[in-house]
Design goal:
Blueprint: E1 8-12, H1 16-26, E2 31-35, E3 39-44, E4 47-52, H2 54-57, E5 77-81, H3 84-96, E6 103-106, E7 112-117, E8 123-127
Parallel strand pairs: 1-4, 5-8
Antiparallel strand pairs: 2-3, 3-4, 6-7, 7-8
Length: 136
């Protein structure tokens, strides 16, 4: 049986304080858990956004849970679902925080996306779910 949903999305950022300012302050996500210098976690509707310091997660955390070491290099990507009205609201909020819009367009099959960069260089998108054929 194939998986039916994604539970976690992971991004990597060497400067977790800057990531926390962006995701918590600019985007308004509520912090779920934090281990200084290692990770910050945010809980969204039905999914977790995990942001790891790649230098720290290359080593096993140790302790009672055998979570293997993992990490990635380079810029990642995350896309947040948003209605067309919410995309406009995001444009204004991002402008209020001087976050530059890298791209803003409508896909050929319909649905709009805007893209920005977080402090670690990760690509952050806000898009209408219909770009993938999902109902809004």
């Amino acid at each position: 049986m194939p998986p039916t949903a994604i539970l976690e999305t992971v991004l990597y950022a060497g400067d977790l304080a800057a990531a926390e300012t962006f995701y918590g302050g600019v985007l308004g996500l509520k912090l779920y858990a934090k281990t200084e210098g290692r990770h910050i976690f945010y809980k969204l509707e039905g999914q977790m956004l995990l942001i790891f310091n790649p230098q720290a997660t290359r080593k096993s955390m140790g302790g009672p849970l055998p979570v293997p070491a993992h990490g990635a290099e380079g810029e990642g990507h995350v896309c947040f679902a948003a209605t067309s009205f919410e995309i406009e609201a995001w444009r204004h909020r991002l402008a209020d925080f001087d976050v530059a819009i890298e791209a803003d367009f409508t896909w050929p099959s319909g649905g709009r996306s805007i893209y920005v960069r977080d402090p670690a260089g990760n690509s952050v998108e806000f898009a209408e779910p219909r770009i993938w054929g999902f109902d809004e």
